[in-house]
Structures are given as structure tokens and as C-alpha cells.
Design goal:
8 helices, 248 residues, elongated, 48% helix, two-stranded antiparallel ribbon, 7-stranded mixed beta sheet
């Protein structure tokens, strides 16, 4: 009789411990989402561990933006990508984008880091992925855009005082070539067509450039496919499964 009681007590303690661990895990997930917009998706039937990164608002570079501006800090993203690459616990990376663009150097740094990750990566453009968000969106192994998602393609713009000398214009051109070179290397759009979209004068009222909506971005060869979160996660699971199979 005593043994049965002790066994039941152990079962109750184990059950309580499991509940407490689950609550703590959920609390940690909530805190990571709140602080840096990141979480690990690991409750799927395939037991794949997918790290979720978000590129939201403006990509912040070396200068801190105002407290009222929603930003993605590249000094948060870069170490996290390095940790993902080094971790045996992460099988793939899903990147959600809704960004107006931002700092060119910071955006390119993020894009280059994502492109160099050896694990399967998929991006999903939601509200928009404008300006320097374009290289980030195409830096993954596969990319999606929702039907109403937008991408704004335009030349490099620098704020502040600009010295009107030839060296300045050469520098602008060098930055532009780095961006167009990266984008064309990681998607199917030809460079002449990308530059044509950048210099379009009839679409943006106060600027040059082009707005591509959903399927237009796919038709231009920038994004791989129109789809949503279920498509992006299913694709990532498929890529992870194929990689694990090849590794055996």
C-alpha cells in the first residue's frame, strides 16, 4: 500500500515538474520575442529546430535612431547568426521581413551573414522589404512574398551634407554596384533590368525607383515564389529533411 502511495506521489511530482518546465520555457520564448523578435520553433512533428529571425522597421546602423522608431539592430542580428551557424541544436533559419530599409552598410552586413550560413534558410516578405531590405530578402536559399507584400527598388540615397566632387559620386557608384552585384548574385533578375527598375521615373512621385507588389517581384526574378507562413515553414522543413538525408 505504501509503495503505491509513494509511486503516485512521484508521478504527481514529475507531472508538476514537467508543467513548471513548460511554463518556464514558454516564459523564456515570450521574453525573447519581446526583446529581440526571435524564437526557436521546435514543437513540430518532424522534430526540426527552426530559428526565427525578424527584420522589422528600420535597419539601424552605427547611429542610434529615435526611441519612437521601430528598429532592427544589426549588432543583435550578427552575433545571433554566428551562434546559429555554430549550434548543433539549430536545423534551419526562417526570416520574416517587414522593413522600410535603413543603413546600407548594416543591411549588407546582415545579408552577407545570412548568405554565408550553411544551414537551410528561407525568407518571407510580409508588409514590405524596401531599399536595403531587398538584399536581405534574397540572401536566403529560398524566398517568399505574400500577395500584398511590396518591394521598393531605388538607387542609394545618403542623408546629411554631401560634398559635390567626383570622388563622392564615385563612392556612390561603388556602393550601388555592391548592392546590385549582391542582389543579382542571389536571385534571377539580370543586372540591366534591376538598374532599369532603380531608375524608373514614372512611379514614385518624389523619387526614382519602382514598387513591386507580390507576384510582380516573382515575375521580375527577385523573389522565388508567392506564399505565406505555411509555405515558408513547409519549404524549410523539406530543405532540412533533404539535408539530413544527404548527410547520412
Amino acid at each position: 500500500m505504501g509503495n503505491n502511495k509513494n509511486s503516485k506521489d512521484r508521478e504527481n511530482r514529475d507531472r508538476d515538474n514537467d508543467k513548471e518546465k513548460k511554463r518556464e520555457s514558454e516564459k523564456q520564448k515570450d521574453e525573447r520575442i519581446e526583446k529581440v523578435g526571435q524564437v526557436t520553433l521546435d514543437e513540430n512533428a518532424l522534430q526540426h529546430k527552426i530559428h526565427l529571425l525578424t527584420i522589422i522597421g528600420e535597419v539601424e546602423g552605427h547611429d542610434n535612431l529615435g526611441s519612437n522608431t521601430k528598429t532592427t539592430k544589426y549588432e543583435h542580428i550578427l552575433p545571433q547568426l554566428a551562434a546559429i551557424e555554430d549550434s548543433s541544436e539549430v536545423d534551419g533559419v526562417l526570416i520574416l521581413l517587414n522593413t522600410m530599409g535603413g543603413d546600407v552598410e548594416a543591411g549588407l552586413a546582415i545579408a552577407e551573414m545570412i548568405a554565408s550560413v550553411s544551414k537551410p534558410t528561407v525568407s518571407l516578405v510580409l508588409g514590405g522589404s524596401h531599399s536595403i531590405g531587398v538584399p536581405i530578402a534574397v540572401s536566403t536559399d529560398y524566398s517568399y512574398i505574400v500577395p500584398t507584400g511590396t518591394m521598393v527598388i531605388h538607387p542609394v540615397r545618403l542623408s546629411g551634407m554631401v560634398i559635390g566632387v567626383q570622388q563622392t559620386f564615385d563612392y556612390f557608384k561603388q556602393i550601388q554596384n555592391r548592392i546590385t552585384g549582391f542582389v543579382c548574385e542571389h536571385c534571377k533578375i539580370p543586372k540591366p533590368r534591376l538598374e532599369e527598375l532603380m531608375m524608373e521615373t514614372g512611379m514614385l512621385t518624389k523619387d526614382v525607383g519602382t514598387v513591386l507588389v507580390g507576384r510582380e517581384a516573382v515575375e521580375e526574378g527577385i523573389i522565388c515564389e508567392v506564399g505565406g507562413i505555411s509555405d515558408a515553414i513547409a519549404k524549410l522543413h523539406d530543405m532540412i529533411g533533404r539535408k539530413k538525408k544527404d548527410a547520412k
